[in-house]
Amino acid sequence: MKTEDQGEDRIWTQLYQEANEEAAKEPILASYLHAIVLNHNTLEDALAFHLAGKLSGPSLQPMLMREVIDEAFLKRPEIGIEFREDLKAILERDAAAQKYVEPFLHYKGFLALQSYRIAHWLWISDRKGLAFHLQNRISELFGVDIHPAATIGKGLLIDHATSVVIGETAVIEDDVSILHEVTLGGTGNMTGDRHPKVRKGVLIGAGAKILGNVEIGEFSKIAAGSVVLTDLPPHCTAAGVPAKIVGRPFSDIPAYAMNHHLHKPEED
Ligand SMILES: CC(C)(COP(=O)(O)OP(=O)(O)OC[C@H]1O[C@@H](n2cnc3c(N)ncnc32)[C@H](O)[C@@H]1OP(=O)(O)O)[C@@H](O)C(=O)NCCC(=O)NCCS
């Protein structure tokens, strides 16, 4: 995978360097870091090896899982662009993340999201049985349930990730931030296209439930613990049960600000 400018893959170079430094500093982790990062030549290779190890199990051996992931990366190279943007989003927005190697190895939001990206490729390639198998493995491993048919853009941060549920006809555009225990679900009263449409740059606070085929306008904020049952316009803050509009965001790009100390003054 080449970078945007077809030159050096800066994220891979930096992540590799970070893994090297960590291996020297913590010898107990050295063989693990070699197996997952340092023995590979590209970010795609390393991620395929890492995810294959995680997602395989008694019903699907690591070698077979690896073949599926390699095929997904080969046939849908956009996945490489998407997971690089997801990694950048974590470093830019999550104050707890200081290096690429940390989310790459350990953050279950990142790993669940990349596993979903493989499952989604299987789904659109009409390999639905294997896509469902992966959905189940992702849920067992990471406590995150994303339907493989859901449509998810790049630059998504799923912070903490525990208990995030994203339904079949949900759409999440680019550059969105989602905290733990968020549900993008149906109301139970609808069939067909029944899940939320989240436009770009939205921040969805922890525990928020957005239910039904409602639209969350771009750059809006949903407060922690809210239950959203109606459309929301762009650039608003909504809070409460049921959620009501309570103001306009301080930042034009709330997903970036995250209230996680990554504040870009020029966006205020
Ligand atoms: C909504 C949020 C993003 C702040 O957005 P904001 O546009 O800056 O909104 P404000 O702080 O100005 O609050 C606007 C109003 O909503 C209220 N409000 C804020 N968050 C709320 C919440 N979760 N539930 C109910 N009301 C809330 C405020 O009290 C305020 O009410 P007031 O005007 O009567 O005083 C923030 O409160 C939030 O919920 N962030 C999510 C963070 C999160 O999930 N953290 C978990 C980290 S592990």
Characterization of the model:
By secondary structure, the chain is of the alpha/beta class. It has two domains: 1-143, serine acetyltransferase, domain 1, CATH 1.10.3130.10; 150-268, 3 Solenoid (UDP N-Acetylglucosamine Acyltransferase, domain 1), CATH 2.160.10.10. The chain is 41% helix and 13% strand. The chain has helices spanning 10-25, 30-38, 43-55, 62-75, 78-93, 101-106, 108-124, 128-142, 254-257, and strands at residues 145-146, 151-152, 157-158, 165-166, 171-172, 177-178, 183-185, 197-198, 203-204, 209-211, 215-216, 221-222, 227-228, 237-239, 244-247. The strands form three sheets. Strands 3-6-9-12-14-15 form a six-stranded mixed sheet. A five-stranded parallel sheet has the order 1-4-7-10-13. A hairpin with a 4-residue loop joins strand 14 and strand 15. Helix 2 (30-38) crosses helix 3 and helix 7 (108-124) packs antiparallel against helix 8.
